[in-house]
Amino acid sequence: MSEEDPSSDFDRLETPPGGVPVVVDTEAGLEELLSALRSGEGPVAVDAERASGYRYGQKAYLIQLRRGGAGTWLVDPVPFGDLARVDTALAEAEWVIHAATQDIPCLAEVGMRPRALFDTELGARLAGLPRVGLSAVLEYYLGVTLAKEHSAVDWSTRPLPEPWLRYAALDVELLVELRERMERDLREQGKLEWAEQEFAALCDFTGPPGPEDPDAWRRTTGIHRVRKPRSLAALRELWETRDEIARERDVPPGRVLPDGTLVDLAHRMPTQASGLASGRKESSRTRQRRAEQGLLRHQRAWLAAVRTAAELPEEELPEPARRGDTPPPPRAWAEREPAAAERLTRVRAGLAELSERLEIPVENLMTPDVVRRVLWRTPDERDAQAVDAATAELGARPWQRELVVPILVEALAAHP
């Protein structure tokens, strides 16, 4: 390790002090786990590993748990219908998770959901840390750095290699100790109550709608370029066809056919196999290869989807996406609504000053979408009470409203 390497000042943890646990994948092992969790005490460190980029969906393929008096446990959720019994055993425990929004949806899928939570990634943001990855936060508070060589591997692999299991166990080894140090820091900064409000809100987090959402196809990257109803119908049929293929093959939809290729097909609506290929180039060689292979491998399916769209009656064509109360991109505000653009400029300056003073990222002071919605379609009444109610309805927490509403009210008054 070179003298210039900043990590040389930290202890590097490469193996759990208690060794790498055996993976729980049998009913007998699960019963041992439940007994240990019930006899344990205090918060429980929780983490989950997915096979993002390798498998369809965001399913958990390994769950890590560590609790005082219970030790560290690695659980393979695949052999079990669900882990509701684990959830029950932890019903009274506070969960400690790093970046909870990444793990809560896949944990909920197997029947596990926190009733109380401490998110060390979000806590680090509120505490003003410049880097909030787990290794960086552990370095800051505990002087320890973790080996992180296996963060993007295919966790659906069976059996899981021992080095991967070692990495997984390390992810929960120090989470509870980290939580204690971070709580002390947040309290000293006067931010603990703010953090607690954020953590409470996370307990109800559900994540974005899944593919079962009837409008999921509208989230296709590049859909804004598709305006004709018939082309939108083609995109919908192509998206649903791709999703079915991906589900059957258990691969991410983007590995079947990239979004850009779907949009291209929806525009052109080819009727023959010779027309599937186009001069369009994907953003990388890998994506280009997937596009070419996907078009060839499933050409009948793509042509059938386009044909279905072409034959739909006019009344069954999808409508263009309704804007509703969603503001346009900020870059368009100056032309479409100059007063709103002035309000946004003023608020951005106020939030930047507040962010620097409190050492909290702007996006954590109040979600940018909430700010834009309030400034674009202003309340009929522009006093603090009305603006506070508007931000509350959009999900802003009390601490956020206390800090940010005065900035919004001032901008609304200056540029009505």
UniProtKB/TrEMBL annotation:
<dbReference type="Pfam" id="PF01612">
    <property type="entry name" value="DNA_pol_A_exo1"/>
</dbReference>
<dbReference type="Pfam" id="PF00570">
    <property type="entry name" value="HRDC"/>
</dbReference>
<dbReference type="InterPro" id="IPR010997">
    <property type="entry name" value="HRDC-like_sf"/>
</dbReference>
<keyword id="KW-0378">Hydrolase</keyword>
<feature type="region of interest" description="Disordered">
    <location>
        <begin position="311"/>
        <end position="337"/>
    </location>
</feature>
<dbReference type="GO" id="GO:0006139">
    <property type="term" value="P:nucleobase-containing compound metabolic process"/>
</dbReference>
<dbReference type="GO" id="GO:0008408">
    <property type="term" value="F:3'-5' exonuclease activity"/>
</dbReference>
<dbReference type="InterPro" id="IPR002121">
    <property type="entry name" value="HRDC_dom"/>
</dbReference>
<dbReference type="GO" id="GO:0000166">
    <property type="term" value="F:nucleotide binding"/>
</dbReference>
<dbReference type="InterPro" id="IPR036397">
    <property type="entry name" value="RNaseH_sf"/>
</dbReference>
<feature type="compositionally biased region" description="Basic and acidic residues">
    <location>
        <begin position="279"/>
        <end position="292"/>
    </location>
</feature>
<dbReference type="Pfam" id="PF18305">
    <property type="entry name" value="DNA_pol_A_exoN"/>
</dbReference>
<dbReference type="InterPro" id="IPR041605">
    <property type="entry name" value="Exo_C"/>
</dbReference>
<dbReference type="InterPro" id="IPR044876">
    <property type="entry name" value="HRDC_dom_sf"/>
</dbReference>
<dbReference type="InterPro" id="IPR012337">
    <property type="entry name" value="RNaseH-like_sf"/>
</dbReference>
<dbReference type="GO" id="GO:0003676">
    <property type="term" value="F:nucleic acid binding"/>
</dbReference>
<dbReference type="GO" id="GO:0004525">
    <property type="term" value="F:ribonuclease III activity"/>
</dbReference>
<dbReference type="InterPro" id="IPR051086">
    <property type="entry name" value="RNase_D-like"/>
</dbReference>
<feature type="region of interest" description="Disordered">
    <location>
        <begin position="270"/>
        <end position="294"/>
    </location>
</feature>
<dbReference type="InterPro" id="IPR002562">
    <property type="entry name" value="3'-5'_exonuclease_dom"/>
</dbReference>
<protein>
    <submittedName>
        <fullName>Ribonuclease D</fullName>
        <ecNumber>3.1.26.3</ecNumber>
    </submittedName>
</protein>
<feature type="domain" description="HRDC">
    <location>
        <begin position="228"/>
        <end position="316"/>
    </location>
</feature>
